[in-house]
Amino acid sequence: MLNLQTIIGGDLNLKKKLIIFFVLIAAVPLILTTMVTSYLSQSALIESVYDDNEKAARSLSEDLNVSLAFNIELLQAMADTAEIQSMDPVKQLPIMKKIEERSKGISTIIVNDTKGIHKVRTQGALASNWDREYFQKILKGADYAISDIQIGNSTGKAALVIAVPIKDAQKNLLGALLGVIDFENLTKNILATKSGQTGYAFLVDRQGKVIVHPDQTLMKGMADVSSLAPVQGALSGKSGTISYEAQEGKNLAGYSNVALSNWGVVVQQPIDEAMAGASKVKFTGIIFTLIAILLAVLVGVFVAGVITRPIRELVGVTSKLAKGDLTAIANVSTQDEMGQLALAFNTMAKDLQQLIRGVINNADQVAASSQELSSTANEAERATNQVAVTMTDFAQGSQRQMEEIENTLRVAGDLTQGAKIVADKAISAYSLSDDMAKDAERGRKAANNAVEKINEIKEVTSLTSGVITGLGEKSKQIRQIVDVISGIAGQTNLLALNAAIEAARAGEQGRGFAVVAEEVRKLAEQSQRATEQIGQIVGEIMQQTDKAIQAMDSGNNKVNEGVDVVQTAGQALQDIMEQISKSVSMVRDIDTDSRQQLQGMQHMVGSTEQIAAIAKEASAGAQTTAAATEEVTASMEEIASAAEALAKTASELQMMVSNFKIQ
User: Fold this and answer.
1) Under a CB-based contact definition with an 8 Å cutoff, are residues 377 and 650 in contact?
2) 12-15, long-range: CB within 8 Å, 24+ apart, which pairs?
3) Domain boundary at 280, 308, 343, which?
4) Which own/partner pairs from 207-211 qualify as long-range (CB within 8 Å, at least 24 positions apart)?
5) Could you give the CA distance from residue 128 to residue 115 in angstroms, rounded to a whole number?
6) Can you tell me where the transmembrane regions are (predicted)?
7) What is the pLDDT of residue 90?
8) What is the average pLDDT across 491-496?
9) What is the distance, to the nearest Å, from the Cα of residue 79 to the centroid of all Cα atoms in its chain?
């Protein structure tokens, strides 16, 4: 596809490009205008056809409504007359014939009774309408009823029946008044309606069957066209426009509804016929566009020749200049842009002559200077190489020195860390020794207190032992007293026994004395038993007292041994105190020495780090100097190479400028 970019950047010459531009300038607006005009004319024609067809459909449906309404009102007026309400055929027939003669649309008038049987009719034989839908509607109370289209048996023509009720003054249904309408006369306007040359109108009943159509085959067969879009719109009770596809092609249709009978009126025109005017407009536009393009080509050829002629002359002069002939001059014949271009070209050629002269002179100087620069660069390169070797050796030595210093720094760091650990341990030992001294002092004091308490226990034990010994002596004395009491009780018992014997001998005079003697004997026996128990208890006390005395003696011995042990422990704690004091003093000295050693090691590490930093800077400086020297060497090599290239370029330039003709 040809586009503007292809034209500008393609292989076409300027003349052809100008011709194409002229054609495009003339053709594009005309083509766009033709397209827009054609589209607008088509849209306008379609809207016009739509509007005309809808108006025609509305007009036809209104005419049908008016005719049907007139006939309904006429029949209702007849039904309200006394003659018709009398249901007497003799009275009814005259008025029925009179109305039939005056009416242009009613062909026959019939009176039915409530059973659907004809009572009288203006034409034809009497019959029954009981099974007709319109009659059933009247029986159900409808104000009027319109039948479907019927074909007459005798005439073979389409007919329509309108029925209205016949009622008396009390609104009782007496029968029905029927009017047979001449359908052809009613619908003659539909067949007469045209839309364009081949467009037409047709009428369908409420089921969508054709009842009026220019095609008699469709009308006689009452073809079902309820599926057509305009028919569906009309039967829905609406008016409007629509385009739809039919067997003969696409049609533009307007439709409307006949309200009283719910029929549909459609007025349509083939779209090809409707667009015929637009096609003429389009064809005319195309013809004018082709003529304009032809004129644009002719004008473009002429104008392009005028514009490109001086350009071609300038191209010839430019070709000479490109071959080295700087003496070529363009012919300046006009003062327009092309003349200004030729004048500027001549000025450029003169400036180029002067430039080439300067280049020739400068090329000789550049050639000589480049040779001198090449020699100087080679000498500087050799000197720089020697400096680079020396700086490289120095940098390597500095690197090794820095590595040794770093090793020393690591060792010093390890020593510093060890000294710090020793100092920390010394501090811990000093703290621990101090705690041990305090604990030993508390132990010594506790031992002294133990000795004092044991001595007190010894004294208390001695006193207790004396008391228990005295208690043993007292127990012995109690035992002796108990023995005496026991002896007295035994003697008293014997005396009481003897007194009782004597009282028995005395008889009645001695009975009271015998009773006393018996009581004395009992008391003596009780005293003897009590003394025996006391003696037994005292004996047990003496045994326990002996054991207590033995235990106290053993306790005294253990107390004496405890005193000796505690005194020995106190002396040992005293000795420990002296040794701990010496240890604390030694640990304090170690702590002081460790701190001094740590400070010395830290100072040594700081000095070593400074030395390492200085060595690192020296090494870095040496490396930088060596690198810079290498860069200088490389630069000198590049300078030498550039000087050689410059000399070669100067020679080539001399050869090139020798091709130019400046005189």
Assistant:
1) no
2) 13/308, 14/304, 14/307, 14/308, 14/311, 15/301, 15/304, 15/305, 15/308
3) 280
4) 207/148, 208/232, 208/235, 208/264, 211/149, 211/158, 211/183, 211/187, 211/263
5) 8
6) 18-40, 285-307
7) 94
8) 75
9) 81
Backbone torsions φ then ψ of 10, nearest 5 degrees? -85, -165
Give residue 530's Cα distance to chain centre.
114
Distance (Å, whole) CA 492 – CA 308: 190
Token duo for residue 139 = 């029986």
For residue 487, give Cα distances in angstroms to 218, 522, 639: 176, 15, 156
CATH of the domain at 453: 1.10.287.950
Pair 126, 232 in one domain: yes
Residues 409 and 554 in one domain: yes
Region 262-276: mean pLDDT is 89
Q: For residue 95, what are its two tokens?
A: 């008025």
CA separation for the pair 365, 600 (Å, rounded):
73
In a domain, 7, yes or no: no
Contacts of 403 (CB under 8 A, 6+ apart): none
> Do 86 and 184 sit in the same domain of this protein?
yes
pLDDT tops 80 at residue 79? yes
Cα 435 vs. chain centroid, distance in angstroms? 70
Rounded CA-CA distance 594/598 in Å is 6
The Cα–Cα gap between 26 and 37 comes to: 17
| Shared-domain flag, residues 251 and 364 | no
pLDDT tens by residue, 581-627: 776 676 577 667 657 756 765 675 676 667 667 656 656 665 676 67
Q: Does any domain span residue 301?
A: no
Strand partners, 173: 167
Q: What does the mean pLDDT of the chain come to?
A: 76
Looking at this protein, which amino acid is placed at residue 169? A
Strands 173-182 and 150-151: unpaired
What predicted TM-score, i.e. pTM, was given to this entire model? Answer: 0.44
pLDDT digits (tens, 9 = 90+) for 291-349: 877 877 777 777 767 777 777 777 777 777 777 776 767 676 777 776 777 777 778 77
Q: What is the pLDDT of residues 397-435, one digit of tens each?
A: 656 656 666 666 675 566 567 557 756 765 775 676 677
Residues 371 and 459 grouped into a single domain: yes
Q: How many CA atoms lie within 13 A of 280 on its CB side?
A: 5
Q: What is the extent of the structural domain holding 627?
A: 356-656
CA 213 to chain centroid, in Å, comes to 66
What integer pLDDT is reported at residue 219 of this predicted model?
A: 83
- Does the pLDDT of residue 377 top 70, yes or no? no
322-332 pLDDT, tens digit each: 777 767 676 76
Residue 63: C-alpha distances to residues 70, 71, 72, 144 (Å):
11, 12, 14, 19
Instruction: Give residue 173's pLDDT.
Output: 95
Residues 364 and 241 in one domain: no
Tokens representing residue 372 in the block: 């001198």
* Mean local confidence (pLDDT), 272-287: 71
Question: For residue 188, what is the domain's CATH number?
Answer: 3.30.450.20
- Count: domains in the chain: 2
- Same-domain pairing of 146 and 248: yes
Beta strand spans in 294-338 (E): none
Residue that has been written with the tokens 């003062």 in this structure: 335
Domain assignment of residue 495, yes or no: yes
270 lies in the same domain as 367: no
555 in a domain, yes or no? yes
Domain ends where: 262, 280, 298?
280
